[in-house]
Design brief:
about 375 residues; alpha+beta; Immunoglobulin-like; Aminopeptidase; 7-stranded mixed sheet; 5-stranded antiparallel sheet; 8 helices; about 25% strand; globular; binds zinc ion
Length: about 375
């Protein structure tokens, strides 16, 4: 038996791995931070034998509620990820699995690899509608990518979409892949019409360093990027610094920041009701956006979500709030589940990469539904 996490987005510490029935593991903390929850490792197994893998420090992780009714993901071929029996006793997370094959990968959610990220960027660059812009280097020396889709023009609505500020929320980049597949399809009528009136500015991965390092929530310096939007710095949070500067140059009419939520088994939007500049017009377009999305897909709902901020009480270090206030625009944090959509459960796969991609494509339709209101 052997367990390793020495690969892109790997994260696990092996405490003991002598008997398949008593494997003891722990999740590593994000570098220079106390956050942890993301795990991703490979097991060399005895096929047909039940392996009991206990994550001993699950109870002190960033979001213990995330383990309730949660099932871990497993894959033999690193393409199809399925759920395996998982229990949480309030302290430890216990994964039980009898692998069919000699080796198997386990993860908190379907990983979105850095190789795939690089493929995505080069693929989009092949489109005549898409410009690929280097924003600058990260702390680990990776490149921050911005994709501009559509010909910029003053009269067009500027739509910004960012994903994966929290690197463990890999569903956010699967979402972006679905969103871009639709937006760059030159036979998609809605996408073509949208590009006549809108320009899209898309950052598929806000936190490449954290993604490769196997972090849950922070960048290479242990900084939670979604608390840096009031005063980002090149030293601590260059990722946000670059994006905010680029936004300043283009302006923003609509902003979507894509995340995953550990605890709630639903897709939902968190709005900017608490920012000082929030007004009736912003509210109306926001409600219209939700109604269109509700009419398109049962994967979206508005019953469950975060508590709505009281007027003036928004945290202006959070991306969606900071952008809404600075640019006086509609902005949402979009959350997808790690677990499943409880309104439409799937016991084999739960919420998945494919469903995240489809949801991304559906959100593009919802933007089509409100595009004419954005600049009127
Ligand atoms: Zn998040």
């Amino acid at each position: 038996m052997f367990i390793t996490a020495q690969f892109d987005s790997g994260n696990i510490e092996v405490i003991e791995a002598n008997e398949p029935s008593a494997i003891q593991l722990a999740i590593r903390k994000d570098n220079q931070s106390d956050f942890y929850q993301w795990f991703h490792f490979k097991l060399y197994a005895e096929p047909g034998v039940e392996h009991v893998m206990t994550i001993t420090n699950a109870g002190q992780s960033a979001y213990p509620d995330g383990w309730k009714d949660y099932s871990a993901l497993a894959s033999y071929d690193r393409e199809t990820w399925f759920r395996v029996p998982t229990e949480y006793n309030g302290k430890e997370l216990v994964i039980r699995h009898s692998p069919d094959q000699e080796s198997v990968y386990y993860a908190y959610f379907t990983p979105y690899s850095y190789e795939r990220h690089m493929d995505l960027i080069q693929w989009t660059q092949q489109s005549i509608e898409c410009d690929h812009v280097l924003l600058g280097p990260t702390l680990d020396g990776r490149d921050m990518n911005l994709l501009i889709v559509g010909e910029p023009a003053d009269h067009k609505a500027k739509i910004w979409v960012t994903a994966r500020q929290h690197p463990g929320e890999s569903m956010a980049e699967w979402f972006i892949e679905g969103f871009l597949s639709r937006l760059l399809d030159d036979e998609d009528g809605a996408a073509r019409r949208l590009l006549e009136t809108c320009v899209f500015y898309i950052v598929p991965n806000m936190n490449p360093d954290g993604s490769v390092r196997g972090h849950l929530r922070t960048n290479a310096a242990g900084v939670n990027l979604n608390r840096e939007w009031a005063e980002p710095s090149l030293e601590k949070s260059p990722e946000v610094y670059y994006v905010l500067n680029a936004m300043q140059q283009t302006g923003v009419d609509f902003y979507l920041d894509v995340h995953g939520d550990e605890a709630l088994p639903y897709n939902f939007l968190a709005g900017c009701e608490g920012v000082p500049s929030y007004n009736d017009k912003t509210h109306q377009i926001g409600e219209q956006f939700k109604q269109v999305l509700l009419s398109i897909t049962p994967e979206f709902q508005t019953e469950y979500g975060y508590e709505i901020d009281k007027p003036g009480e928004a945290n202006l270090t959070v991306a969606s709030n900071a952008v809404s206030e600075r640019f006086n625009c509609l902005a949402f944090t979009l959350e997808m589940p790690f677990k499943d959509n409880a309104n439409l459960p799937d016991v084999d796969f739960g919420w998945s990469a494919n469903r995240s991609q489809q949801f991304g494509a559906d959100v593009l339709s919802a933007i089509y539904g409100i595009a004419n209101s954005l600049r009127s």
